[in-house]
Design goal:
Structural class of chain B: mainly alpha
Oligomer: heterodimer
Radius of gyration of chain A: 25 Å
Largest interface: A-B, 69 and 67 residues
CATH topology of the largest domain in chain A: Alpha-Beta Plaits
Helix content of chain A: 40-55%
Number of strands of chain B: 0
CATH superfamily of chain B: Formate dehydrogenase/DMSO reductase domain
CATH architecture of the largest domain in chain A: 2-Layer Sandwich
Strand content of chain B: under 5%
Distance between the termini of chain A: 12 Å
CATH architecture of chain B: Up-down Bundle
Structural class of chain A: alpha+beta
Number of helices of chain B: 15
CATH class of chain B: Mainly Alpha
Radius of gyration of chain B: 24 Å
Number of helices of chain A: 5
CATH class of the largest domain in chain A: Alpha Beta
Strand content of chain A: 5-15%
Strand order of the largest sheet of chain A: 2-3-1-4
Helix content of chain B: 55-70%
Number of domains of chain A: 2
Shape of chain B: globular
Order of helices and strands of chain B: HHHHHHHHHHHHHHH
C-alpha cells in the first residue's frame, strides 16, 4: 500500500447456513454487547428484531401523523374553497355540507399516508445509499438469493478484528471476510 | 439437539411444491426475464402494440373531432366510456384485495400471486383512467378537475361524485403504485446482484436504492408493508363505492339505489379475480410456474369468485325486490324493462355469465379443472362488462318521459377505443413479465419450510 489512499477496515462479514444460525449469532452478538451489526437475509426473519435487540420501528407514528395532516388539510381545503373563497349554493345545501366532503378527505388522507409509509421507510433505512462496506464483498450478492450474512461494523465500541472474527467463527460463521475501504 | 418441529400451516398442502430451495426459486423467477423470450412473447407483444396504436388513433381522432364520433345520443349521454371505466377499475380491485386484505388476514398463499395481481391492478387502473380523461370533450382543460388556483377564481365542486371519483381513483392508482414498488425493492436487489451487463447493473442498482437485506432495514420495511396493506384495505371498499355514487347520487330510476356501493364492490372483486385467474393460467403454463401458482391457489380464487358471484346475484334480485317494495312506478318500470325491454339480450347475458357460470364452482372437480376455470373466468368478465352496460344504458335510454326515449348503439370508434385499451393493458403486462420479477421472490422464500427458525429449548454445546 504505497498509494495515497489508505485503506482501513470497515467491517467483518461472515456467512451462515440457515436462518436459525443467523438468529443464534444475532443473540450472541447482542449479549456480547455489540451494537453496530446487521443480519442480512433474502427475506425477513421472524423474531430477528428481538434477537438483535431492536425496538419497534417508529414508522407507525410517522404514518399516523401523515394521516392526520392529510385528512385535516383536505377538509380545510374543501371548507375554505366552498365557504370563503367561492361560496356557491348547490342543491340548496349549506356551504359547509361536510358529509359530501368525506370521500375527498379520506382519499387525500390515504394518499399522504401511503407516500409517508414508503418515503419514511426509506428515510429510516438511510436509502437510497449506493455504497456500503458490505458491497465490497464478492460473496455478499448471495444475500439477495440464498445467503445469510452477519456484518459487524468497525466503528462499534466492541469491535476488534481478531476477537470479532473469533466470535463469528465460534457461532459457525464461514468465509469470514475483513472488508476494507477508503 | 432437541428441536421443535414446525409444519408450515399444519394440515394445509405446501404453498410451494416441487422441492425448491431458496436458490432454485431465485433461479426460476430471475430466469424468466434473464433468459431469451419465447416466440409467443414477440407475437403477443406485436399484437398488443398494434392494439395500442388503435387506441392512440381512436383517441387522436376523438380529440380532433369531439365526442360526437361516439354513439351517444339524447337521452343516452353516457355510453361505452363510462362502462369501460367502471369495468377496468373493477378489475383492479382483486389485486388490491390480494395484496392488502389477504395480507392482513395472514393468507400466506397470496405470496405467489400478489406481484402479478398488483401489476394487473396498476395496468387496469391506467386503462380505466383514460376514459374519464378523454370523455370530457375539451381535453386541454382536463386540469380543471383538480383544485388548482386559477385566474377565474373558481374551484371545483367538491359535492359532486364525479369529483370524488377524480380523487378516489387517482389516489388508488398512486397508493397501489407505492405499494407495488415497496414490494419490489428486495427483488430488484436480487436482479441487481445477478446483473451481468453494465446497463442492467445501473438500472436495477438505481431502482433497488441500495437495498442490503439487513434486518435493520427489514424491520422498517416490514412495518411499511403492513401499514401500506392497512392503508390500502379501505381502498378496496372505498374506490368502487365512490364510483357507484356517480350513479347512485343521481335521480335516474335504476341508478338511485342505496345498494350500489356494496354491490359494485362485490362485482369489482368478482371480475378482478376472474382476470387474475385468466392471466395466471396463461402465465403459469407458458413460464412453468406450476410449482408456485399451484392448483390450490387457483381453487382458492375460484371459491372467492363463487362467493362474490353469489353476492352479485343477490344484489340483482334485491334490486328487483326494492323496486317492487318501493311502490315507485318509475323504479319498477326500470327493472321490468331491463329484463324484458330493448336491452333484455344484454340483461340475460349478464345473468348467465355472472350468476349461472360461477355455480360451476360448487363442484370440486370443476373448481380444479383448468379448462373449466379458464372459460368461466373469461365469461365472468364478459358478464361484468354487460352488467355495467345494462346499468348505464338501459336506465338512460328509457327514463321518465317516453317521448324522449331512444335506442343506443355504439359506433366503430367506441368499439375501437375499447379494444385499443386491451392493447395498453397487454403491452404493459408483457413488458412487466419481460423485465421484472413476476413472483415476489422475497415473500415466497419467507413462506417456505426452510425459512422457519427452529427454536431450541435447551442450549446446546
Amino acid at each position: 500500500m504505497n498509494n495515497a489512499i489508505v485503506k482501513k477496515t470497515q467491517a467483518v462479514l461472515a456467512e451462515f447456513d440457515s436462518p436459525t444460525a443467523l438468529l443464534k449469532t444475532a443473540e450472541t452478538l447482542r449479549d456480547a454487547g455489540y451494537k453496530k451489526f446487521d443480519c442480512h437475509s433474502p427475506f425477513a426473519i421472524h423474531g430477528m428484531d428481538r434477537a438483535m435487540g431492536l425496538k419497534r420501528s417508529p414508522l407507525g407514528w410517522m404514518v399516523g401523523l401523515a394521516a392526520v395532516v392529510g385528512t385535516s388539510s383536505a377538509l380545510a381545503l374543501q371548507w375554505w374553497t366552498s365557504t370563503i373563497d367561492y361560496p356557491l349554493v348547490i342543491s340548496g345545501k349549506p356551504f359547509f355540507s361536510f358529509q359530501a366532503y368525506v370521500p375527498v378527505t379520506f382519499a387525500l388522507g390515504v394518499l399522504l399516508s401511503a407516500a409517508t409509509a414508503l418515503i419514511g421507510m426509506l428515510a429510516l433505512n438511510g436509502l437510497p445509499r449506493f455504497h456500503h462496506p458490505v458491497f465490497y464483498s464478492d460473496r455478499f450478492s448471495r444475500a439477495s438469493d440464498d445467503g445469510f450474512f452477519v456484518s459487524v461494523e468497525s466503528d462499534d465500541k466492541m469491535f476488534n478484528v481478531e476477537q470479532t472474527r473469533t466470535l463469528l467463527q465460534q457461532c459457525g460463521g464461514k468465509n469470514i471476510e475483513i472488508l476494507e475501504g477508503e | 439437539m432437541s428441536t421443535t418441529e414446525y409444519i408450515i400451516g399444519s394440515g394445509e398442502p405446501p404453498l410451494v411444491t416441487g422441492n425448491h430451495t431458496f436458490a432454485s426459486v431465485t433461479e426460476h423467477i430471475c430466469g424468466i426475464p434473464e433468459g431469451k423470450q419465447p416466440t409467443w412473447w414477440y407475437l403477443a407483444f406485436g399484437g398488443a402494440l398494434s392494439l395500442l396504436m388503435v387506441l392512440a388513433g381512436s383517441i387522436g381522432y376523438l380529440i380532433w373531432e369531439g365526442t360526437g364520433i361516439w354513439g351517444l345520443n339524447n337521452p343516452v349521454g353516457w355510453g361505452w366510456a363510462i362502462i369501460n371505466f367502471v369495468w377496468w377499475v373493477g378489475i383492479g380491485h382483486a389485486g388490491t384485495l390480494i395484496s392488502a386484505i389477504l395480507f392482513l388476514l395472514r393468507q400466506r398463499w397470496r405470496t405467489s400471486i400478489n406481484r402479478f395481481a398488483e401489476a394487473m391492478t396498476l395496468f387496469a387502473v391506467m386503462c380505466a383512467l383514460i376514459f374519464p380523461a378523454i370523455h370530457v370533450g375539451r381535453i386541454w382543460v382536463v386540469y380543471w378537475m383538480f383544485p388548482l388556483p386559477n385566474q377565474m377564481s373558481m374551484w371545483p365542486n367538491f359535492r359532486s361524485p364525479l369529483l370524488w371519483d377524480v380523487f378516489a381513483v387517482s389516489t388508488y392508482f398512486t397508493a397501489s403504485l407505492l405499494f407495488w414498488f415497496t414490494g419490489l425493492i428486495p427483488d430488484l436487489a436480487t436482479f441487481r446482484d445477478r446483473a451481468r451487463t453494465k446497463i442492467k447493473r445501473l438500472i436495477f442498482g438505481f431502482l433497488a436504492l441500495g437495498w442490503r437485506g439487513g434486518n435493520r432495514q427489514w424491520r422498517h420495511y416490514e412495518l411499511a408493508y403492513l401499514l401500506l396493506a392497512g392503508i390500502s384495505t379501505p381502498l378496496v371498499l372505498s374506490v368502487h363505492s365512490v364510483v357507484s355514487t356517480d350513479f347512485a347520487i343521481s335521480i335516474i330510476p335504476g341508478w338511485h339505489t342505496t345498494i350500489f356501493p356494496p354491490y359494485f364492490v362485490a362485482g369489482a372483486i368478482f371480475s378482478g379475480f376472474a382476470m387474475v385467474v385468466t392471466l395466471s393460467i396463461i402465465a403459469r403454463k407458458l413460464y412453468h410456474l406450476e410449482d408456485f401458482i399451484t392448483l390450490n391457489h387457483l381453487e382458492k380464487m375460484n371459491k372467492i369468485m363463487l362467493l362474490t358471484g353469489m353476492m352479485v346475484g343477490y344484489a340483482y334480485s334485491m334490486e328487483f325486490f326494492i323496486a317492487w317494495y318501493s311502490g315507485n312506478i318509475y323504479e319498477q318500470f326500470a327493472f321490468i324493462n331491463r329484463a324484458t325491454g330493448p336491452y333484455a339480450w344484454a340483461y340475460w347475458i349478464m345473468i348467465s355469465c355472472n350468476v349461472l357460470v360461477p355455480q360451476l364452482f360448487w363442484f370440486k372437480n370443476l373448481r380444479r379443472s383448468i379448462p373449466v376455470m379458464f372459460i368461466a373466468s373469461i365469461l365472468i368478465n364478459v358478464g361484468m362488462w354487460f352488467e355495467r352496460f345494462v346499468i348505464v344504458v338501459s336506465s338512460l335510454a328509457n327514463d321518465f318521459l317516453p317521448s324522449s326515449w331512444d335506442y343506443y348503439s355504439p359506433t366503430i370508434w367506441d368499439i375501437l377505443t375499447f379494444i385499443g385499451s386491451f392493447g395498453l393493458f397487454f403491452t404493459l403486462f408483457l413488458l412487466f413479465i419481460r423485465f421484472l420479477p413476476i413472483i415476489a421472490m422475497a415473500e415466497v422464500k419467507g413462506v417456505m419450510p426452510q425459512a422457519k427458525v427452529e427454536h431450541t429449548e435447551v442450549a446446546h454445546e
